[in-house]
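ok so for the tutorial part 2 we go from a plain amino acid sequence to predicted structure tokens. step 1 is just haveing the sequence, like this:
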Amino acid sequence: MVRAKRTKNPARAPSPARTLLMLSVLAAAVLAAAAVGTAWFLDSRGVTPRALAPYVAKRSSGHNQAIEQSGKWMQRTLISLDRGSLYAGDDGLLQMRPGAQARAAPPLAVRALAVSSVAQLREAMAGAMPGDVITLAPGEYAIMRGELGARRPGAEGSPIVVRAERPGTAVIEMGITEGFKVTAPHWTFENLTIRGTCKYQLYCEHAFHVVGNADHFTARNNTIVDFNSHFKINGRRGDFPDHGAIIGNTITNTTIRDTGTAVTLVDLVSGSDWVIRGNVITDFIKGGGDRISYGVFAKGAGARNILEQNIVVCEHLLRGPGQRVGMSLGGGGTAKRYCRDRRCITEQDDSVIRANLIASCSDDGVYLNSAARSVVSHNTVLDTGGIVVRFAESSAEVEGNLVDGAIRSRDGGVVRAHDNFDTSIMALYAGSHAVRQLFTGSSVATLDWAGEPARREAPPAKPAPDLCGGRRPSLPAYGAFEALAGCRQ
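step 2 — the prediction. this is what the tokens look like for a chain of 489 residues:
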């Protein structure tokens, strides 16, 4: 009998279930690699999830229902990964130490003028002399036509002052395009409550328009509500308002601004040597036009402007569509005819953003556009797109910031970043927010350190002030403050 030759058993064909599993693993690996590759590409281009989300929605709009629904789902997912749970609105924010206070010392007066009507206020301002102190009696003042002109110059050491004796007692309701129009130097406004009351928000443009030769303007301890740009500062016929100060004001809106004109609550164009300090600036949502708005910007070829110790919350009590930027040097750029040098080779030179708390912005927290030799130091930036230095004309020393987002360059901007605590863009796409985890609290006003603050590796070369006015140690915490409790009244 001939025996059959024995051979090894051939490999068994994989079962259908095993084949499916292998294909699934392979597909997952391919998708994961694609996701990592996409995240790396977006990271290299400086595109945050919150910046990508509206682009995805726009590109998928107008296609078939499946594509539109997929685009909306991706938009929601990207926003959720980047923004997470938004900080809840809290009225306590408007009563914090930065911003208008309930106390203010009266200035020395060469001549004290008491007014109790709009007509008397107009007359006093029209005939004002250096050293005059114009005090509004408690009550409401309705201005429905005609700006309040500040055309007579004060003098160094003897400004013309328009004030209320106590904050909150004199309420000026403005139903006009421009309220106080300041065209002469050395005017100060303090302790006033000013509200925009236009039937159409388009027409309530500015509570203050500071223009031309209006050097040494000061706004201090005012509460200003419901304008498109509460402060508008710009040059006129070759004169530029310099050495101004906007200090300790509360600047906010109660509704989305239904306008296509600019919405920037402090709009500084072409002025130099301004100090914008200790203000609370919130809720600047632009409902029309391009829907891009700013809390504060300085642009137009000005120089040496200082933005410090402010609290800027883009979305405090309001939510809405569009892009909101907290603070900017350069803004969206300036038409050459409005620039100080008529060219705007740079939008800003030698300006400073430091010791600010900036939060809840749908776009960047700090945006530098053609801003040369800038300093961005010791800011706390939460729930924003981070800090961006854009275009080759921009250069910035970025030091000691605490950023729930990325510090990045775009389009050739020069960033010299040193000893910051920030978050990579790839981490944002993974929904990771290590900076937020440093804090407890459900709102910006209630932020507290979850443990010991994260501190600088070495003493800063130039110490920054504390947001709340407290003394900072030699090794300060990253960001704007040692303890936000110091800001609570």
